[in-house]
Design a protein that fits this description.
- With 356 residues, this protein is an alpha/beta fold.
- The protein has two domains: 3-47, no CATH class; 55-293 and 339-353, TIM Barrel (Alpha-Beta Barrel).
- Helices cover 25% and strands 24% of the residues.
- The chain has helices at 93-96, 111-120, 137-149, 164-171, 186-193, 198-210, 229-242, 268-281, 294-297; strands at 3-4, 8-12, 15-18, 26-27, 38-41, 44-47, 55-60, 74-79, 125-128, 153-158, 176-180, 214-221, 249-253, 286-289, 299-300, 307-312, 315-319, 321-322, 325-326, 350-353.
- The strands form five sheets. It has a nine-stranded mixed sheet. The protein has a three-stranded antiparallel sheet with strand order 1-6-5, with no helix packed on it. A three-stranded antiparallel sheet has the order 2-3-4, with no helix packed on it.
- A hairpin with a 2-residue loop joins strand 5 and strand 6.
- The longest helix is centred in the middle third of the chain and has 14 residues, at 229-242.
- It is globular, with a radius of gyration of 20 Å.
């Protein structure tokens, strides 16, 4: 299914220029851009991702990861294929590096059908994830509109490599996002992700300062590449100065995958060190991920130190927040929280594939 794309302009000689992300791909007739799913058909840009999915799952929202947005909720999650980055360490490479005509994709996932699946599974929200939804922004926006009409929330899980115009259009329809800040050096971005750091930092600062979208940030720590104490501290100081102390930051563990098989898994001690450094800088909500670390997964009140959200992995065992504040001392806890009594969640994932 080909669908008219937004975010493009003629580039002469039958080519089109995709203006969605900073790559600014100039695409010839019959060719696709770097992401595989945006291509030139008859001098117009089309997307092959609209209405197609490589699979669905019901995930705990903590898996996105989001720690301060409806904790314990389940969220219908799905992606398409392709990506606008070239990360050598991609943890979802079988999806993000696939072409839709080569993968297990289905053409008929209209926004209404996606929303109906979310409601059937009892999920209060929909997450655009697995591969970067920036490249299928048209489809994500249409699904988000249908989700909001049905009373569901929306979550956008992205690397944040997107141009300003498209960025404003996309996030107007999103309630929460997790942005994956791959590293804090341009050298890493250029060599390891085939992209650039500055546009991602611009997206992060814009989200924190100019929108009402709830934003959290993830940094995957890869031994010997982006895990030095100096880089971690610089990253934390940037978040504090450009986004504020209340933005949750997740330091997560790498495992060897795709084209980066010569690095060991991230030691838990590296994650704990990064968390401690970020807290010393002044960030109030810092987490560890992809490891078993109850302390690094727990939300502490910045006022009295009480455990306001207790987690074990993706399972949420207790929420002690009343009207957005610590139940023990009344300090406001940054986030979006439900007012209904909390029921502990199991943190289980339910893979659905492509259900009928």
């Amino acid at each position: 299914m080909l669908h008219a794309a937004r975010y493009w302009e003629p580039a002469g000689d039958g080519r089109v220029r995709c203006t969605l992300c900073p790559r600014d791909c100039r695409i010839g007739e019959g060719q696709a851009g770097f992401c595989f799913v945006r291509r030139n058909e008859g001098g117009r840009l089309v997307t092959s991702a609209w209405g197609r999915s490589t699979g669905f799952a019901v995930d705990p929202i903590e898996k996105k990861p989001l720690a301060h947005f409806h904790p314990g909720a389940s969220v219908l999650s799905f992606g398409t294929a392709g990506c606008n980055l070239g990360c050598r360490f991609c943890q979802n490479w079988d999806i993000s590096k696939a072409r839709l005509d080569e993968g297990r994709a289905e053409d008929a996932w209209t926004p209404e059908r996606v929303v109906a699946l979310a409601r059937r599974m009892g999920s209060p929200g929909i997450a655009f994830t697995y591969n970067d939804p920036v490249i299928w922004s048209e489809y994500a926006i249409d699904v988000a509109r249908a989700a909001h009409a049905a009373g569901l929330f929306t979550v956008f899980v992205t690397a944040g490599f997107v141009n300003a115009g498209a960025r404003a259009d996309v996030f107007r329809h999103m309630d929460a996002t997790n942005v994956d800040l791959k590293a804090f050096t341009e050298d890493f971005y250029r060599k390891v992700t085939l992209s650039h750091l500055a546009p991602v930092l611009e997206t992060l600062e814009w989200l924190a300062k100019e929108t009402q979208v709830w934003v959290e940030m993830t940094n995957l720590l890869i031994p010997g590449l982006n895990d030095s104490p100096a880089e971690t501290r610089a990253l934390a100081e940037w978040v504090l100065g450009h986004m504020g102390p209340d933005v949750p930051v997740h330091f997560t563990a790498f495992h060897p995958d795709y084209k980066l098989l010569d690095r060991p898994p991230t030691p838990p001690s590296t994650l704990r060190r990064a968390r401690a450094a970020a807290r010393e800088v002044g960030l109030r909500y810092v987490y560890t991920g992809n490891v078993r670390d109850p302390e690094g997964g727990t939300t502490y009140c910045p006022g009295c130190g009480a455990k306001v959200i207790e987690r074990d992995g993706y399972a949420v065992e207790a929420v002690r927040i009343a009207r957005g504040a610590c139940a023990a001392c009344g300090t406001l806890i940054a986030g979006r929280f439900d007012e209904e009594p909390f029921t502990p969640s199991g943190g289980f994932r339910i893979p659905l594939g492509l259900p009928s």
